[in-house]
């Protein structure tokens, strides 16, 4: 194969949206299924179970969107503040910044002469980009965008939350708890495997860790429902 035609697809380019998507879908599935299982285990009827689940879907999707937006916005604000400071330092003390970049490359294994040459060339091409990437650890490749993260989280939360609601609406009322729990565990294992695959990690490991925590959450809410539950009627 010609070197000119060689191309690589790196999973790190997906981090910005993949984290929000996996987190949203996982939270939607686990939280809504746990809510449905808990309410059903308390002896409530199908209408009450579905209302509780739907309320959990709406509240959860909005909460995920707001949380992701605020979280990523705070991260972006901090990054922009660091970049502004670095821009000022490059303007006021360029030689000191060049020395700093040289030391960074020396710490990574380059000898002093080569490190200096690399620092000079990168500074000449894009000083701020070099310092942002190598000194601050800020890269456009792994930077998430607040609105993108919020929308992806809300949408994937809703998709995940719909699954236990559909199951609860279709199965016999007396079987809501076991069937929703079993279906959710299967869906979680698939979701964990897909998320791990999209990120380049081991599929089995991703499926097991997601399924374990989902099972723990549903067991806890089911126990609460059985202990404190009363029939709503």
UniProtKB/TrEMBL annotation:
GO biological process terms, semicolon-separated: intracellular manganese ion homeostasis
Q: What membrane topology is given?
A: Multi-pass membrane protein
Q: Where in the cell is it found?
A: Endomembrane system
Stretches that traverse the bilayer: 21-43, 49-70, 149-170, 176-198, 210-232
A GO cellular component annotated for this chain's UniProt record is: endomembrane system
Q: Does the keyword Transmembrane apply?
A: yes
Record keyword Oxidoreductase present: no
Which GO MF term does the entry hold, naming one? manganese ion transmembrane transporter activity
Q: Which domain of life is it from?
A: Bacteria
CDD domains the UniProt entry points to: Nodulin-21_like_1 (cd02432)
Q: Name one Pfam family in it.
A: VIT1
Keyword line: Membrane, Transmembrane, Transmembrane helix
**Name assigned to this protein:** VIT1/CCC1 family predicted Fe2+/Mn2+ transporter
Q: Which organism is it from?
A: Salipiger aestuarii
């Amino acid at each position: 194969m010609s070197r000119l035609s060689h191309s690589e697809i790196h999973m790190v380019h997906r981090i910005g949206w993949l984290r929000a998507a996996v987190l949203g879908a996982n939270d939607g599935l686990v939280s809504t299924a746990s809510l449905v299982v808990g309410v059903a285990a308390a002896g409530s009827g199908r209408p009450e179970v579905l209302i509780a689940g739907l309320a959990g879907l709406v509240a959860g999707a909005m909460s995920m969107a707001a949380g992701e937006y605020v979280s990523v916005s705070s991260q972006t604000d901090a990054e922009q503040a660091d970049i502004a400071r670095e821009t000022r330092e490059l303007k006021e003390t360029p030689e000191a910044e060049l020395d700093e970049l040289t030391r960074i490359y020396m710490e990574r294994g380059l000898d002093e002469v080569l490190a200096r040459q690399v620092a000079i060339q990168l500074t000449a091409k894009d000083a701020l980009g070099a310092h942002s990437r190598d000194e601050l650890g800020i890269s456009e490749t792994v930077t998430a965008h607040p609105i993108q993260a919020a929308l992806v989280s809300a949408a994937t939360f809703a998709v995940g939350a719909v699954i236990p609601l559909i199951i609860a609406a279709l199965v016999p009322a007396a079987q809501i708890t076991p069937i929703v729990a079993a279906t959710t565990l299967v869906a979680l294992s698939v979701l964990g495997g897909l998320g791990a695959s999209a990120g380049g990690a081991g599929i089995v490991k991703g499926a097991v860790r997601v399924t374990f925590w989902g099972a723990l959450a549903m067991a806890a809410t089911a126990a609460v429902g059985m202990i404190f539950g009363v029939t709503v009627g």
